[in-house]
Design goal:
Elements: H1 3-14, H2 21-36, E1 43-45, H3 47-54, H4 58-70, E2 74-79, E3 82-88, H5 99-108, H6 120-148, H7 154-162, H8 168-179, H9 185-197, H10 202-215, H11 220-241, H12 273-291
Antiparallel strand pairs: 1-3, 2-3
Length: 292
């Protein structure tokens, strides 16, 4: 089994098959365990190990496991008190077709009939009905591809932004934001991108998500509207800083008049340095004489 090919095939498969985040998380954990085991056909994993790797509690783990089995991506067997065994169904292997493929095969099959047992009008009606059903299914598949092609997975986005896999606690937190707080998975990925662009780690993205929860921001459209409002407020603040504020003075205010310098008697305001020195020496002698 080729790890990279399976990952690429898995995300291609997700474009037409929806999975809850917990099931995607579990699939990644089982792939990691099987990779370390050397891609053996069947491997045993204890529930406690799964909980550590995924952060999923008992009920969430069982639900995710059942979803993956129903979708034909894994198979498992309970063994009582012993650890359950798992088998990952590779995208390269010739497994039984999914329910969608089975329904398509059944619809495209032409029923066997004898020319004499069915009227021509009934045959024409049956053929037309089958064609209409096939056309309807094809239209639905195209619509699914169009809407699911843009789908973003938070696990993949986390690895791209933070260069590593999320820890079990982080996975539990992210699942809480999506499942309990109702934040769209694509919006969660935007928070990861904002943190990465700021050169920060997951804790910064968690702060962004908590802030969005307090503001009721849940969708990508909500995020875009908040960004637009922030840019407008920042532009308005920048414009205000460039304006010089002028206060209107009251009517009773008067400008202070400049004080006039009145020269002291006996002192020439235009005297030179030598004249000033001679005057000071004379004053000093008079002071000494009067003191004696």
């Amino acid at each position: 089994m080729n790890y990279i090919k399976e990952l690429n095939a898995f995300y291609d498969w997700l474009e037409t098959n929806s999975l809850p985040p917990s099931a995607i998380n579990l699939w990644h954990a089982l792939m990691n365990i099987n990779n370390k085991a050397g891609w053996i056909p069947e491997f045993a994993v204890a529930k406690s190990v799964i909980e550590i790797k995924t952060g999923l509690k008992k009920d969430a783990y069982y639900n995710a496991r059942n979803v993956l089995k129903q979708k034909g991506r894994i198979d498992f067997k309970e063994r009582g008190t012993r650890a359950a065994t798992f088998r990952i169904i590779s995208f390269d292997s010739s497994e039984k077709p999914t329910s969608n493929q089975i329904s398509e095969n059944n619809l495209s099959e032409k029923p066997t009939r004898t020319p004499t047992s069915t009227p021509i009008s009934a045959q024409t009606s049956s053929t037309t009905s089958t064609r209409n059903i096939n056309k309807l299914n094809k239209t639905k598949r195209n619509e699914t591809n169009t809407t699911a092609a843009d789908r973003v997975n938070y696990f993949d986005s986390y690895m791209l932004c933070f260069k590593g896999q999320p820890s079990p606690i982080q996975i539990q937190e992210i699942n809480y934001f999506i499942d309990q707080e109702g934040i769209e998975e694509e919006a969660v990925c935007i928070a990861f991108k904002k943190a990465a662009e700021a050169g920060a780690k997951y804790s910064y993205a968690r702060s962004i998500l908590n802030n969005w929860v307090s503001k009721g921001i849940k969708t990508v459209q909500d995020v875009e509207e908040e960004n637009k409002a922030y840019e407008q407020s920042k532009k308005s603040f920048s414009n205000r800083r460039g304006v010089v504020r002028q206060e209107k003075l009251p009517d009773w205010y008067q400008e202070p008049q400049q004080a006039q310098v009145v020269p002291l008697p006996g002192i020439n305001p235009n005297e030179t340095y030598e004249e000033k020195r001679a005057r000071l020496e004379k004053m000093q002698k008079q002071f000494q004489k009067s003191g004696s």
